[in-house]
Each structure stands twice: as structure tokens, then as C-alpha cells.
Amino acid sequence: MFIALEGVDGSGKSTQVAMLCEALGPDTLRIREPGGTDAAEAIRDTLADPGIPLDATAELLLFFAARADLVNRVIHPALEAGRLVVSDRFVDSTEAYQGVARGLGIEVVAELNRIATGGLLPDLTVLLRVDPAVGLERAKSGDRFEAEGLGFQQLVAGAYEDIARREPDRVVAVDGNGTPEEVHLRVMDALREFLGPEPAGTGS
Ligand code: TMP
Fold it and tell me: Whose CA is nearest to atom 18 of ligand 1?
């Protein structure tokens, strides 16, 4: 099974990904996007650096270059081996940031995802909902996307809401406010709800 966490910058995703992986056990594969392979981590460094000027279409294609390497060499083999995969961001980030906030179009993103990954989507995407102003306040990396400011993050937040409305069977939004432990309980509830009732006799 493939689970992704999404949210605006500073939404607390990375903390929640760590807590979720801990809860799911040691065989869970934890990855982040962009990243997760040597090539994708190198691409990440370029994408993150606001000091490196980058055309918006080049930016989009770099996200998909990183994703193709990660999906084809790491995620697909892990899923085929029956492992749980938890990713800090996936293609919904590209729809929200490049497709909508950068204005490149959501159809283009879907088409590139077909080319780069064979159209892979998470089985479950948990959207951590926080006010973009609050997120920006606590985001500290100073990367290219934080540097775009609040208006950009608001477009991203709106795009995530559209995805959640469009795909209610895959995308569950949870309140990202509160302590990490409080948010973790909500993430686990979302996962349990997605998995449905446990067969009788399998525990609590
Ligand atoms: P993060 O790992 O700290 O969330 O940083 C990744 C940054 O890259 C974040 O600002 C969101 C951005 N991003 C995109 O713009 N498009 C994408 O497809 C992905 C995966 C991330």
C-alpha cells in the first residue's frame, strides 16, 4: 500500500510521516519527494535553492525527473514486494504547486505523471490542513517555494482543497493544528477509516 502526506509548507508533514512510519513498523519504506535516490536528492538541491534561477516548465520537468527515478527504481519494486510505502509529498504537490500556483495546468501534470510513473497515485493521501499563513510562519527552510510568499501558499492550499473534493475516496483532509501527538491520532483515524472495519478477532 502506498500512502502520501500532503500540505502547504510548514504543515507539519515531515513530523507526521515520521510518526506514521514508526506506528506502521520497521518494514515501512519512508521516502520524501523530491528525493529518495541519489539523483532525486541532487535534483532536490537545485529545486530548493532560490538562488538558482529556474524556468517554471524546467522546474516542473525536474520534479517529474526526480519522481520517475524514485518511482521506477524504488517505489514500484517496494510495492511489488508487498511493502508499505509512506511518502512525504507526491504528485498532488505538483498539481498544487506547479499546476495551479505556477499556473502550468493540472492536465499537463496528470499527463506527465502518466509518462513519468505510469500514472501511479497513492492509495491514500492524507492532507494536513493548516492555515497557509501559520504554515509559512513556522516553515524554516527558506526554499524556493517559501520564498514565493503567502499568496503562493494560499493558491497551493486552495488547489489541495480542490483535489480533496474531486477525489474523496483517495484524499482525506485532517486538521493539522495541535500537538504532533494530536495530529498523529487524526492521521491514524484517517488510515483506519480508509482500511475499513477489521475482521473480527484481529485485535483492538
Ligand atoms: P518539503 O520537503 O520541505 O516539503 O520541500 C519540498 C518543496 O518542494 C515544498 O516547498 C513543496 C515543493 N514541491 C513542489 O513544488 N512540487 C512538487 O511536486 C513537490 C514534490 C514539492
Answer: 94
pTM higher than 0.90? yes
Which grid cell is 40? 532525486
Question: pLDDT digit string (tens) for 140-190?
Answer: 888 999 999 999 999 999 999 999 999 999 999 999 999 999 999 999 999
Phi, psi torsion values for 87, nearest 5 degrees:
-115, 135
Q: How far is CA 47 from CA 40, 75, 79, in A?
A: 10, 21, 27
> How many angstroms is it from 135 CA to the middle of ligand 1?
14
Q: What sign has the CA pseudo-torsion 154, 157, 159, 161?
A: negative
Nearest CA to ligand 1 atom 16: 94
